[in-house]
Each structure stands twice: as structure tokens, then as C-alpha cells.
Amino acid sequence: MKISHSPYLLYPRNSLNAVSVGEAREGTLLKVEWEGGLVGYADLHPWPELGDLPLVRQISDLRSGYSSDLVKQSLWMARRDALLRHKVQHIFSGGEPVKNNWIVTNIQNFDIGSLQKIKDLGFTTLKVKAGRSVAAEIAALEKIAEAGLGIRLDFNASGSWDKFRNYLMQIPAKVLSRIEYVEDPFPFDPSLWNEARRLVPIALDNQYSQVPWASLQEAPCDVLVLKPAKTDVSEALAYCEKWHLKMTVTSYMDHPVGVLHALGVAMELKKKHPNLILDAGCLTHHLYEEDVFSSAITVQGAYILQTPGAGVGFDHLLETLPWQPLSQQ
Ligand code: MG
Predict the structure, then answer these.
(1) Which of 2, 57, 118, 228 has the largest count of CB atoms under 10 Å?
(2) Is 250 exposed, middle or buried (0-12, 13-18, 19+ CB in 10 A)?
(3) CA dihedral 142, 143, 144, 147 (to 10 degrees)
């Protein structure tokens, strides 16, 4: 196996969540070549703010033969891409279309007047990154509920049980009933999360590795948010089946190559497990300034359409990138 990489920067249009500021984000694309001519591509986009090792460390570890969870998933996706390219099949071709939620990374910059337009485009759910400005968020949630849209809130485990309970108590009942789920309301704690589940459905995302899956007595949440960029897909699927959880597949707010990979996983799972898979959260490339990759993606309402080419597509763009062999500093 020969690995090359091609570093990139993504420029956020706004601050992306409660723990990041609007600085350029670095990642790298991986090109993996296997014997017999198989070539596949994947993204590697760590979030050190959320506990990932920084990119430079991921790369130096990979060079010395150690793979983080992120790298393992990237290699898994590169292999998927390679097999599809070999068969000249697109990553979407074996799946069922999956709608995406509309994502609001910062409610302060969100134009409430655009709600009707979002609804007209066919979106049914808005995901709001929450926990930064309570009053403004709750006022916006009321408008979102009035527009008849579903709500997903994400605290990125930045709060506490008390803070979260107070937050919920300020939300009118008619708005509360529009909340599909709340993601990572505060750091995982089996009994406090179960308390929280009595108030609103709870989704598990970045607290996944904090859950003692082997010794659980009851379901830790209602929904599992799967980021194929970080988490083993078949393991997460087995947990969903065991604990009767629904699943939302999301991108890692990463490069368009990562976005296509994540949605490809969502679509394949949707075909095999139609009742388990909820709307996805893969429509994230527009959170960054446009580049040659994101401008190659066509969006139709809440759906991302098939990119030209095989695997994740972007064939010509990927072939012409400057690739650096991993063994070379
Ligand atoms: Mg999340």
C-alpha cells in the first residue's frame, strides 16, 4: 500500500460551532494505491478543538505505522473509493437518496426571513449549533417552529446538566414538540443523560467514545449520530440495532471528498435499513468559501446530486492535485 497526501485549507464563512472560531481549517486528502492498480481517495480532517490529534501528528503517526481512529476510517473510505473506481461505479449508485438537514452554525448570523425559502427548497429539519447566545437562539427556535420545520439542536457537549435543563425550561411547549432531538447536550453521563431523555430525545455524537458500550444496562440515547470520518460504521450500526436507536449520518464538516464519502455511507445504509436512517447532515460544503471541489457539487433542494465520475467523483480534480508521498517529509 502506497499513501500520498495533498494538504488543503478550508475557509469558514462563519464560526462553525460552540468550540471553534472562524479561522482557516486544515486537512489533507489521501491517495492510497494498492497492488494490482487499485487507487482510492479519502479525506483526513481532524478537529483538535473536539479532541482529535492535530493534522501534523496524524500524518507523522501514520508515517510511523500507527493509525488514529480518523486515519483508520480514511483508509477504509479510500478502499471503498478504490473498489468503486475499479468497477466504474459512483458511491451513490448502490444507495437510496437521503435528504439533508439545513445547518445553522451561528444563529446570530442567521437570516430568520429565509425560513420560508428553506422550507420551499424541501428541507424539513434545521440543525442549530446551540449554547452560545440563549435568548437569541430561543427566539429563533420559536420562528423555526412557527415555520413548521423540525429542529435538531447541538451543544457539542459544551454545557452541563443544570445549564441544559434551564435552557429547555425556557423553550415554549409548542417549540419543544418540534425538537426532533438534542445532540450532546453536555458531557456523557449515563444517569444524567437518561434524566435528559425524559425531557427531549437525545442524540449521541462526539460523546460516542465516552459510552461504556459493553457494560450498558439501557440505551444511552435515542439517536446515534454517525460520522463515518471518525467512527467504524458496522460497529455503530450494531449498537443501533441492539439498543433500537435511530441513526443520523453526518459529514465531519470536512472537505467535499469527505462529504461525498459520508453521504455515500448514508445512502447505502438507507437502502439496507430504511427505518433506521433519519435525514442526514452532509450538506456542509457551503459552510466554507467556494473552491474547485465544492463548486463541482450540485445541490438540489435538500439533496446532493451525484458528482461526475466514479467513487466519490471529482476524478480530474483529484488526478491533477500535487500529491506528496507520505514517506517524504
Ligand atoms: Mg454534533
Answers:
(1) 228
(2) buried
(3) 120
Q: Which residue has the cell 462526539?
A: 206
What's the alpha-carbon Rg for the chain, to the nearest Å? 19
Distance 194 CA to ligand 1 centre (A): 18
What separation in Å is there between the alpha carbon of 323 and the centre of ligand 1?
31
- Buried b / exposed e across 121-152, counting CB within 10 Å, b at 16+? eebebbbbbbbbeeeebbebbeebbeeebbbb
In this structure, the chain runs to a length of: 329
**Each residue of 12-63: pLDDT tens digit?**
987 565 555 568 999 999 999 999 999 999 999 999 988 899 999 999 999 9
Taking the C-alpha atoms of residue 293 and residue 301, their distance in angstroms, rounded to an integer, is 19
Single-letter code of the amino acid located at 53: L
Q: How far is the CA of 86 from the centre of ligand 1 (A)?
A: 34
